[in-house]
What does this fold into?
Amino acid sequence: MFKKYAFALTIIMVMVLSACGPAATTAPPAVVATEPPAVVATEPPAVVATEPPVVAGPAVKELTILWAQWSPADYLQQIGALYEQATGIKVTVVQEPWGSFGDRFNVAMAAGGTEWDMVVGDSQWIGQGATAGYYVDLTDFMKANGIDKSVTPATLQYYGEYPTGSGKYYGFPTEGDADGWAYRKDLFEDPANMAAFKTKYGYDLAVPTTWAQLMDIAKFFTKPDKSMNGVAIYTQKDYDAITMGFENVMFSYGAKWQNPDNTVEGVVNSQASIDALQYYRDLYDCCQAPGLNNAFYTETNDAFIGGQVAMTMNYFAFFPALANPSTNPFADVTGYFANPAGPTGVRKAALGGQGLSVISFVSPERQQAALDFIKWFAQEDIQAKWAALGGYTCNANVLKTEAFLKATPYNPAFSETMTFVMDFWNIPTYAALLTPSQNYLSAFVVGGQGTAKEALDSIAAEQTTALKSDGVIP
Amino acid sequence: MASFEETGPRTPVVEPTRVDKVHPRAKWGKSIRVILTVIVTFIMIIPVLVMIMTAFKSRANIVTPPPKVLFHPTLEGFLYLFTDRSVLSPSNLEAERANPGDLNYWQKLALSVGQKINGPSDYVGRLKNSVIIAGTSTVLSVILGLFAAYAFSRFKIAGKDDLLFFILSTRMLPGVVVTIPLFLLYKQLGWNDTHIGMVILYTVFNLSFSVWLLKGFIDEIPIEYEEAALVDGYTRLQAFFRIVLPQAVNGIAATTVFCLIFAWNEYAFALMLTSEKARTAPPSIATMLGSGGLEWSAIAAGSLGFLIPVAIVTFVLRDYLLRGVTFGAVRK
Amino acid sequence: MSASESEFKSPSTKVRQRHLSNSAIVNLFIWPTLLLLIMMNVFPLFYSLYLGFTNYSAIAQKAPVWVAFQNFSNILNDKNLWQYFATTGRYALMSVSLQVLVGFGLAMLVREKFKGGGILTTLILIPMMISPVVVGLFWKLMYNPTFGFFNALLGFSDPSRSPDWLASRLAGQPVPGLALFAVVIVDVWMWAPFVMLLVLSGLKAIPDYLYEAAAVDRASSWFQFWRITLPQVAPLLLIAVLFRTIEAFKSFDLVMGMTGGGPGVQTELISVDLYRIAFLGQFRTGMGSALAYIILIIIIAISNLYIKYLNQSKGEG
It folds into this structure.
């Protein structure tokens, strides 16, 4: 008897709710559909092209920006306070912890949410945002206001442009970031060390200019019995760390992730790539501090703070902690350098960082208000203020000023790095391409399984499958 | 036997007497048992002690080998936990340090680590949310579960096994995948980021466990008591409240503790289905990002603070947890 | 209602008319629970099932497209996924059996009343009260071979010759399976108290006259344990095992915090992989739902086994 009732109720419930459920997800597609350029072209440009904003609806009094929960978001909030002083519009930066930032943003966008007007999204989200129609097309806006010329070309390409080379922009480069290195100046400048190094390797102990030199230095400083190791490099499997770490070497060896036509076979597993992977594995085997088999920014910084390594790899965003004497006992003797060059002299760095994008689901008035904010924010003096607070500006001029270079010990290396950053994929399929990379890199480097060639061949094969199943390549 | 009936035991028997264990060795055995328990308990809570130490250590002390038991304690962890700060850029830092003005202890501490307090963090608010949501859902799931368990235990119900299995199956689907349908459902109902939404969710998830566990306990209570009561004129309901309930206290206490712990520590749904108003503490504790990595001392401090209410509830209920069901009156 | 009836009235017709009938009670007791469960669970369950047959991605802004069994065949043909299942099975087996052993042992220790027993029991329960994510993070700190406490307490002072648990290495040599075992240790640490509490309740319910009778018959301690203690504790013990096994298959927070599935895929439990597929940027909701249903079926199969044992042990056949 119960079963009968339960079953009937179930059917009714399912029918009622199924009618409602998918509607939540099919409604936005009806509006945004599968042709985002068409939709986007009709809305924002109509608003953007006319410079003095046509105030149609009620004046916008406040804006919200979604970002991850970290210090740069605090700095942006302070910038927002300046904007409020200038225009009376209140800007609130909503901070979501890193662990849930991506998930929360994606889930909200899937439901066509309008909780935020702007988002400072990862560079890798641009493809997703553009094709799925979350992001407003900023091309005309940025060109009309000269914003595209104000930032370094590399940052514009990676934080703003999609597809690569198309000249269409969906994000304003806000927080530049890339991989760099911190090192123990006291160890490098210690006369005994310098003498011993010169004797052993034949050249002076100094900041490495090539990866080969970095390996020598790492080996020199690896003394397990003294609890000292050469390096702390990225090995984390969870999301993208080990791929990013490897990229630094891979790009510098001249290898890349894809051909211009998006095929990967022969490119991902090219000889240069194999050599680079072998290098990364050798570096891990000889000189990685113990306990760092799943290391990302926390662990590499901790290893440095604990005095266990001579050099550590990390994003510049996390170097303020190393420069802070109360966090890092070695802060006063910590130096920073940008990625060294590969065997052919190429210098590249894996890109991090985020760009500011406008959400397309909010009303046209709000979109215009958001664009006004970006226009104000992109001005050189505001960017200088942003940098002074601690934000990693992408403004080409500010990056070269004395004030910037002197502001922190790592700014010179940062400024240098921002001219040769390079990114992983940014198409919507990027996550499916990241998974095999993470799996096989971790298995080879950390797990010690197989050979470099086998690992890269497997990555190429699985990435090809993913690309094919998403229709990116035939 | 005759003499026993006439005189009876002179002193109340406090300990269960065992015919085979009145040997003096028994006393010794008991001491060993106590000592062993203390040792085992200590070993089990060593990690918790490590956490407590970590809450009072500076970052460098935590990550520098070898592990330290003696160290210079600091309240940084609590500063990170309870306040919202921003890291000062070096130039601003110098300016602030040159002109500190009138600062209280916490502000001075913040300045000493290169940061500036913006205001209180939302930890306390989150804690309050946790108390409301977890507490309410626990009470609800235990009460509802108790009634349902009793019905399943005592009555013949058509399709009982299937229903019980259905109740169990609600717990089997990995939460990760149910999140998106639930998110959509809640959006329809307008329950996103509301207390009631989370309370209902946790109640439902705990119900499967509480029904099964309480049924297990109630099954252990001999049915002869209620039958006797019914013969004496009690109604079913009265029998339930006056006879079964007191004997099920042990089970109710255990179920309460487990349901509370689950709802209290639940992380995935709290992360996905709440944002500002109804968010509980676990999502924020685990991701306390310092300026260059996870802030271990803050995480330790936050987790310990978060642990205390549950520990208090368990401590208060400990007698009920350890109490034995009355036995001996009914011989089977 | 009739709660105020005097307890000495004999069952007269007058009384019988005023109290709830049995079926009314059953309805009243069960329906609120069932309704709540149906409402909150049926829609997600069915919608997830539907999604399993589509290639839906929650963030792609495209309506779900029916692909029939493609997701399922992709999963079942993927040898990687079978490996993850095997890993999860091994993990569940090791973890649950150790939990039972340790939990049972703890319960036997604590069963006799003694001063301070209540406090000690509360202390033992504390590991269970900490959020699994935080437990994972802190044990990662503790397992660190250089500044972690675990190795130090075990007596390993030289980092280069001590086991690097989460990296599956001992003095530089790979020891496959060490990381999984390390995770099992943490899981047992957390949940053995759970088993202990349930077993304890069962132990306390054992009437002493059973032991007295056995002693009179000169039964050995082993016999007493096997024939008296175990059968009485079995129902609650099996409930504990049932729920812990289900949770082991869903186990995700702990592993993610400690190893992220590494090194390689040594600790890649099936739910970690599920999270990767369904979230973490990939957002392949359709595939994730299909995988979740496969996991569900496996869990249902195992649960059925347990429940059979449970009913047998209670004599319900």
In short: Confidence is low (pLDDT under 50) at residues 1-57 of chain A. Chain A touches chain C through 54 residues (CB under 8 Å). Residues 179-350 of chain A form a domain with the D-Maltodextrin-Binding Protein; domain 2 fold (CATH 3.40.190.10).
